[in-house]
Structures are given as C-alpha cells and as structure tokens.
Amino acid sequence: xxxxxxxxxxxxxxxxxxxxxxxxxxxxxxxxxxxxxxxxxxxxxxxxxxxxxxxxxxxxxxxxxxxxxxxxxxxxxxxxxxxxxxxxxxxxxxxxxxxxxxxxxxxxxxxxxxxxxxxxxxxxxxxxxxxxxxxxxxxxxxxxxxxxxxxxxxxxxxxxxxxxxxxxxxxxxxxxxxxxxxxxxxxxxxxxxxxxxxxxxxxxxxxxxxxxxxxxxxxxxxxxxxxxxxxxxxxxxxxxxxxxxxxxxxxxxxxxxxxxxxxxxxxxxxxxxxxxxxxxxxxxxxxxxxxxxxxxxxxxxxxxxxxxxxxxxxxxxxxxxxxxxxxxxxxxxxx
Length: 335
Description:
Layout: E1 21-28, H1 33-44, E2 47-52, E3 55-59, E4 66-70, H2 73-76, H3 79-85, H4 97-108, E5 114-117, E6 121-122, H5 130-138, E7 154-158, H6 165-185, H7 190-193, H8 203-210, H9 218-227, E8 236-237, H10 239-245, H11 247-253, E9 266-267, H12 281-296, H13 298-314, H14 319-334
Antiparallel strand pairs: 1-5, 1-6, 1-7, 2-3, 3-4, 4-5, 8-9
C-alpha cells in the first residue's frame, strides 16, 4: 500500500510559537490488553504500569505516556463496586477479586472497545504513530469494519493554534460546512452513523453560527453551545477546549463526568478501520487539515457561510447533495 503523507495545517505553531501537537485515540478489539501493552512497550520503550484490570499505562516511552483502557466508564471507574456494595456484595472480601475483574473485562470487550490514548506528538513527528497502526494490524486487531456491532472510532486531538474566540468559531464554522463532504468521502461506517456518538450539529445551530452577525465573546459562545443542546457526542466536540478556557462555566453546564480539560479540538468523526489495509491514519488527519485550511481562509469562510445560508433557504429537496458538490469543488481547488 502506498504511504500517505501527513499534510501540514496552515498554522503549525501555537500561540507561544512552539510546534503544535496532536494526540490520537484508537478504539478496537481482538487483541488482549496485556498483549497491546507489550506492543506499545516494544515499539516505543518505557515500562508498563497496570493500574487496574481495565487500565494500563505505558510510561516513560520515547513519546511520553500511553494509556490503554477498556472504553466502558462503569468498569474503568469501578462504579460496579459501589453498585454491588449497595446490595450487600463487597468485592474486597473476595480472594479472587482480580480474576473476577479480568473476566468482566473479557466479557465486556466483546462489545465495548479497548482504547489507546497516545501522548501528544509534534505535527512533524506524527508518522511515528504509524508504527502502532501497523503493529495492531499485524496482530489482527479488529476495527470499525470487523463487525456490524463495532461503532469504533478514531479521535484526533489537535492542539488549538490560539485561544481567541474568533479562531474557535472559525474552526467550528469550517467544520460544520465540511461535515457532509467528510462523511461521504471517508465512508463513515453505518454502525457509527446509527449510534449517537457523532450526531451532526442541528441545522438551527448551524444557521446560528454561520450568521455573519454572530460575534460572541467566550461566555456567550459556550452558553449558546449548550442552549442549542450540544453535548460531547458531536463529531467536533468543543467541550474539552471550553473546559480549558472557562472551566467554571463549562462545568456548571455539563451533564457528564467524562470530559477533561484540554487545549485541543476533539475530532471524533473518523472510523478506526485497523482491519482494512487501505485505511490510514494520515488520510483521516488530512481531512481534518481541510477544516483548518477553510478556517484560516477568512474570505472563503465568509463566502461559503453565506452560500450555505442562501442555498439552505432556497432549496427544498436535495440540499445535502448540492452542498457536498460545492464543497467538493473547494476541496479540489485547495488540494
């Protein structure tokens, strides 16, 4: 298979003038957690620390700390222990508690994926993560297309180029306009489209943020995001960066305990098709770079925002296909 290069975004530096970084999250199954931990250690060095039966950390690697976990909050946070104690069962009194936890993990992994969370790597060094993709594939890891039940995703966490509301809003505007094209171009798996994890932004919210008169401050931007019923289950999840910029306000509005504060965009849309030899990490990253290119081009961003609003107003049937074709022309122009 031809190696796909990682395209650079228009802004490769953060506000401090340092090279931006990006982290990756892979959801998959089919390989034991202990084996995956060994794979990471063999590739990048470091030492394996088993926090629980559901959480491993591979520390002091050449890249930083990798996390490996079963992507099930009930098990990962051991909430089942509180549940069992409420009915008089105390797992701490069981001599074989660890083997019981491993059994729970193995049963859950038939449906719930394992997740590797990489440390942030420099944009110029992203190809180092290809070694992990290749190794998981060699060990027969099962990805999105391995079963109709596997709604597994790849999450990208690119560091924001700066903290201005204008930049955040421009990236969100660019994303919502490119979302239909990306979904079609990357062939998002039907199992993922049927789950609530990557729900499209509602049209009423898209109209709101594409309005040229919409120029919110940070608090108003965050409040609007919640008032229009957005949650972490959007293909571009803004909650981590909102937590980073205004933790007090975001925490007061958030309904879950999963979101963590990060100076990154949390791009959740791509498949994690490790089972497909033609799937590549770089191709998914390059689709995200298109978002950054449109966000950085103020003239094009404003033109296409007005075009979206006008086409939506004038079109009763076939809006999405017409819009995808318009975006396809823009992609060809910038590629």
